[in-house]
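Re: that backbone. C-alpha cells:
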C-alpha cells in the first residue's frame, strides 16, 4: 500500500510540474525565472513538448526549445528532418495581407481556433508566390533562375529546391513521401500537376485532363489531400469518385432527381474532410439553388446526401474551402454552410443550415467590396470570425513575382 501511495504521489507531482511548465512556456518573456527549471527531467520536458506537437502548436514547441540548452537537447530539432509530419503545419491558414499589422502576419489554427500574430522577416528576401491550404509559404529566389523554396512559418524551416519557380501557380501544396518533402502545384491553364523534389532539376508534370484536374484541384483546396486523407486512401476514393461523376446521366444524378436537366451542367464540386475519421464529403453548389452536402461512401462506391455534419461548419468561396469545429469558434453555428454571393462589385455572406434547409443572409449591407482583384472587407471593425474566414475563401494571394513582372 505504501508503494502504491508513493507512485500516486510521484504521478501527482509530475502532473503539477507539467501544468506549471506549460503555463510558464506561454508566459510573457522576462516575467519568469527559468534558471531553476533547467534541471527538469528530460522525459517530462518531452511530454510537455509532445502535447504542443499533438495540437500542432509548433510555435509553442519552438519557444519551449528556446528556454535553455537542457530543454533543447531533450527535444527533437525540426530542421534536422523537414519531412517529419510532427513539424509540418496542419490546417493553419494565412489570412490575407489586409490583416497585417506592424509587419506581422495573422495566422489561424483552424483545428484549435487559435490566432497567431507572427513576424516573418525572411519573406522580404524572396518573392512570395503562394501559400498552401496547410500553412506553408511557397517562395522563389529573387535572382534568376528563381529557384523554388518552401518556408514553414512556425519552425522557420526553409527547404530549397533546384527547380525554377514559375511566376504564377494555381493551387500549391506540400507533401511528404518516403521521407522526402516535395512541392507540387496545379496549373489551371494547362490542367497539369507539377511536382518538384529537393535535389532534382525541374518540375515533373502529369497531364490529368480537364475533368480529373478540376476534381483533384477541389480536393486539394478543400483540405482532403494531403492533410486529412493519405495518398493511397485518396487514390482509391478518387478513382471511384471520378468514374461516378464522369457520366452525365449516371447514378450520381439520381441523388438530384428533382433537378431540371439544364441544371446538371451548372454543378460545381468542392471536396473536404470532416472529422477525425477522414471521411470524404462533397460540397455541391448549383447556380440559383441552395448548396447541399453529400458523403462519398467508399465501401459501396456511392454518393449519399447527408443532413448533418455534426459540430462542424463549412466555409466556401471561389478560391477556397475549409471546415472548422464550431465548438472552437464562438459565433459560428454548427451544421451550417457559410458562403458568399457576388453581386457585381460587392459580396454578401449567407448561412445555410443543412438540417433545417434554411438560408439566411447575415447582413443587409454588403460585407465585401471588390478592389482590383481582391474582395476587401468593408464591415465595421472589429471583424467577426465569420467575416475573416469568408474573406480567406474568396480571395487568393497574388504572386509577388507576377507583380514584379508587371511593373
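Recovered sequence:
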Amino acid at each position: 500500500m505504501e508503494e502504491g501511495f508513493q507512485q500516486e504521489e510521484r504521478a501527482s507531482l509530475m502532473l503539477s510540474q507539467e501544468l506549471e511548465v506549460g503555463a510558464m512556456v506561454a508566459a510573457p518573456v522576462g516575467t519568469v525565472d527559468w534558471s531553476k527549471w533547467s534541471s527538469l527531467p528530460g522525459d517530462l520536458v518531452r511530454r510537455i513538448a509532445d502535447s504542443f506537437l499533438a495540437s500542432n502548436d509548433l510555435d509553442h514547441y519552438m519557444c519551449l526549445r528556446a528556454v535553455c540548452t537542457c530543454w533543447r537537447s531533450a527535444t527533437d530539432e525540426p530542421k534536422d528532418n523537414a519531412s517529419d509530419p510532427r513539424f509540418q503545419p496542419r490546417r493553419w491558414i494565412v489570412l490575407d495581407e489586409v490583416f497585417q499589422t506592424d509587419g506581422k502576419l495573422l495566422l489561424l489554427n483552424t483545428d484549435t481556433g487559435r490566432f497567431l500574430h507572427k513576424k516573418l522577416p525572411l519573406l522580404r528576401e524572396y518573392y512570395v508566390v503562394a501559400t498552401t491550404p496547410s500553412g506553408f509559404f511557397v517562395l522563389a529566389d529573387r535572382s534568376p533562375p528563381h529557384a523554388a523554396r518552401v518556408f514553414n512559418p512556425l519552425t522557420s524551416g526553409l527547404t530549397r529546391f533546384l527547380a525554377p519557380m514559375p511566376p504564377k501557380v494555381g493551387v500549391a501544396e506540400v507533401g511528404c513521401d518516403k521521407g522526402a518533402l516535395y512541392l507540387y502545384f496545379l496549373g489551371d491553364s494547362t490542367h497539369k500537376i507539377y511536382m518538384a523534389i529537393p535535389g532534382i532539376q525541374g518540375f515533373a508534370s502529369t497531364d490529368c485532363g480537364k475533368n480529373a484536374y478540376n476534381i483533384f484541384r477541389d480536393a486539394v483546396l478543400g483540405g482532403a489531400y494531403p492533410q486529412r486523407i493519405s495518398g493511397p486512401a485518396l487514390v482509391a476514393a478518387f478513382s471511384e469518385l471520378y468514374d461516378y461523376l464522369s457520366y452525365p446521366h449516371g447514378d450520381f444524378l439520381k441523388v438530384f432527381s428533382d433537378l431540371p436537366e439544364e441544371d446538371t451542367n451548372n454543378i460545381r464540386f468542392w471536396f473536404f474532410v470532416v472529422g477525425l475519421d477522414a471521411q470524404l464529403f462533397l460540397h455541391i453548389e448549383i447556380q440559383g439553388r441552395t448548396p447541399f452536402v453529400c458523403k462519398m461512401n467508399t465501401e459501396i462506391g456511392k454518393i449519399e446526401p447527408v443532413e448533418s455534419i455534426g459540430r462542424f461548419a463549412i466555409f466556401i468561396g471561389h478560391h477556397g474551402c475549409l471546415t472548422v469545429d464550431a465548438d472552437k469558434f464562438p459565433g459560428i453555428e454548427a451544421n451550417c454552410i457559410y458562403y458568399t454571393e457576388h453581386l457585381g462589385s460587392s459580396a454578401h455572406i449567407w448561412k445555410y443550415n443543412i438540417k433545417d434547409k434554411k438560408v439566411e443572409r447575415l447582413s443587409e449591407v454588403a460585407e465585401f467590396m471588390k478592389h482590383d482583384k481582391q474582395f476587401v472587407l468593408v464591415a465595421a471593425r472589429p471583424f467577426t470570425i465569420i467575416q475573416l474566414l469568408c474573406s480567406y475563401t474568396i480571395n487568393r494571394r497574388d504572386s509577388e513575382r507576377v507583380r514584379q513582372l508587371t511593373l
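The first strand starts at residue 92 and ends at 94. Confidence is low (pLDDT under 50) at residues 1-15, 247-259, 273-278.
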